Amino acid sequence: MIRHAALFRLHHAAASPEELSFLEALNALSAIPGVESFEIAREVSPKNDFVFAVSMIFADQAAYDGYNNHPKHIDFVQTRWLPEVAAFMEHDTTALV
């Protein structure tokens, strides 16, 4: 099992139509085959300056690779993520025990 997460902040103003549009487009990635337990969350910790987190689970490396190479994911990264995300940190893990 692979847990994939990205913490990020946008160039858009909070609660703006642009922010909402981005989050809706991000949510559409949950329909890509192999994506499990998809969640978009708002950051509440004062210990970092990221605003949102997106997380999902994949059964195995093949499912994760399928997601990364899916045309909808590639298009989202090129047309939305790269131009609209101001900063991010990716966090991909597998459990040790």
Outline the structure in words.
35% of the residues lie in helices and 33% in strands. The protein has 3 helices and 4 strands. It has a 4-stranded antiparallel sheet with strand order 2-3-1-4. The protein is globular, with a radius of gyration of 13 Å. The mean pLDDT is 97.
The major beta sheet can be summarized as: 4 strands, antiparallel
Order of helices and strands: EHEEHHE
Overall outline: globular
Quickly count the helices. 3
Terminal residue distance: 12 Å
Helix content: 25-40%
How are strands sequenced across the largest beta sheet?
2-3-1-4
| Structural class by SSE content | alpha+beta
Evaluate the radius of gyration: 13 Å
What's the rounded overall pLDDT mean? Answer: 97
Poorly predicted segments = none
The total beta strand count reads: 4
- Beta-strand portion reads 25-35%
